[in-house]
Each structure stands twice: as structure tokens, then as C-alpha cells.
Write a structure and sequence with these properties.
2 domains, single chain, 12 helices, mainly alpha, about 240 residues
Length: about 240
């Protein structure tokens, strides 16, 4: 598409402004969840500097929350490292999915990108990269903005930890699902995508109520994706 045919707002928007606009759903999720992490880390006995450093160096929400829980339970360092390593193995699959779009990037660029990749930025970049939007400045802008929101939420949580005894009544745990719903909406490009998403949500709920409390999300995702792939293959075969 010629740049002259683009809307004026798109022609004048800078890469960083575009990065902020795209990262806004992530910001709205990261700040409250990072806040909850900061409070929980302080309550578990982790020092303020180590709490912030974990958000800067590790930058993995689920792994950080698990590590804080293990730290509070006086688990050994080896147990904490091994557990968080297993939790983050999903990054191998996410990296493999995005790698074909970044073949022209240098190794330092790839290393920096992988350092800041999370579930949420992966979901956002997967949609962007599929449309050919792989410009480094905008891509790194999204990552830096997302991590800044997480670190900022952590600092706020630390500052408020003396005033809050329990984060559950505040309802901060809903921020992460709400953020994923917002990111999911940008991924729905057909009725089949919508059907797979609804099926996965329904199956996850049913499996959880049936007692599969530890792996209901993973099982529902695999089943729904498999059904979606079968439906796509069947539709393509009929159309041909």
C-alpha cells in the first residue's frame, strides 16, 4: 500500500508512539500484576533491591511469582532455579515460532529481543510479524515499554507493601486474564479463530470443574487447537 493512501494518523505516528499504543493493553495488565508481585516479594522476606533486580534481570511474571512462593517456603536455591527453568521452557517454542521472521536481524538484536520476550509480547509480536511489521525500533520500543511497566509496578508494590496485608481483596489477579483477552481480540482474524478461542475457554472451565486444576488450561489449549486444525484442513479440502 502506498504511503499516500494511508490514513493521516498512521502517516504521522512515530515508531515509539505506535509502540506505546500497541503495548497499552500489556501496560494495563503489567502494572497491577507487577504491583502484586512487589507486595508478595516484600512479604516473603525478599529485599527491595533483589525484588526490583528480579524484575529487571529475570522479567518473567509467572516465574517470579513462583520463585517468591518458593523463597517464602524456604526452598533451596537449586529447587528455585530448576522450577523456574522448567516453567520458562515454553520460551523455546515461542522463539521457534518467531525466528523465521527475524532471519535478517543480527545476533545482538536477537539476544536483546529474546531477553525481553514474554507471553504477552510474544502474542503481540506474533500478529505484527505475520503482517511484516518487524522494524527493530518499534519492536524494541514495545518490549522496553512493557518491561518498564512491569518494573514500575514492582516498585509501586514495594512502596505500598507496608500498607497492604493481602492483595487478593483488591482483585489484582484479574488484571492478567483481562490483558490476555485484549491481546486475544487482536489475533481473531476469522470465525474459525473465534471458535477455537471460545472452545478453549469452555473446555478449560469444564476441565477445571472436573478436577483437572493443574493442567486444565494446557489440555484445553491443545484440544481446541487440534480441533481447529482439523476444521481448517477439512474446510480447505472441501473448497479445493
Amino acid at each position: 500500500m502506498n504511503s499516500a493512501t494511508l490514513p493521516a494518523a498512521n502517516r504521522t505516528e512515530s515508531p515509539l508512539a505506535s509502540a506505546f499504543r500497541q503495548a497499552l493493553p500489556i501496560i494495563l495488565g503489567y502494572v497491577p500484576v507487577g504491583f502484586a508481585y512487589g507486595v508478595l516479594a516484600q512479604k516473603s522476606g525478599l529485599s527491595g533491591i533483589n525484588t526490583v533486580l528480579m524484575s529487571v534481570l529475570v522479567f518473567a511474571g509467572s516465574a517470579q511469582l513462583i520463585a517468591v512462593g518458593l523463597f517464602a517456603a524456604a526452598a533451596s536455591p537449586l529447587t528455585i532455579v530448576a522450577t523456574t527453568f522448567i516453567v520458562n521452557l515454553r520460551h523455546l517454542l515461542m522463539s521457534a515460532a518467531l525466528a523465521p521472521y527475524l532471519r535478517k536481524w543480527s545476533k545482538p538484536q536477537l539476544a536483546l529481543f529474546s531477553y525481553e520476550m514474554t507471553d504477552e509480547t510474544f502474542a503481540l509480536h506474533a500478529g505484527r510479524f505475520a503482517k511484516g511489521e518487524t522494524a527493530p525500533l518499534e519492536t524494541f520500543g514495545i518490549n522496553v515499554i512493557a518491561q518498564s511497566a512491569w518494573v514500575g509496578g514492582t516498585v509501586l508494590g514495594l512502596a505500598a507493601s507496608t500498607l497492604i496485608t493481602d492483595v487478593k481483596p483488591i482483585g489484582l489477579d484479574y488484571a492478567l486474564p483481562a490483558m490476555f483477552i485484549a491481546l486475544l481480540l487482536g489475533q481473531l482474524k476469522s470465525r474459525l479463530h473465534l471458535l477455537v478461542a471460545v472452545t478453549a475457554g469452555a473446555l478449560s472451565t469444564v476441565l477445571m470443574l472436573a478436577g483437572l486444576s493443574q493442567s486444565h488450561v494446557l489440555a484445553a489449549t491443545i484440544l481446541a487447537a487440534t480441533l481447529g486444525l482439523g476444521a481448517h484442513a477439512w474446510t480447505k479440502r472441501r473448497s479445493s
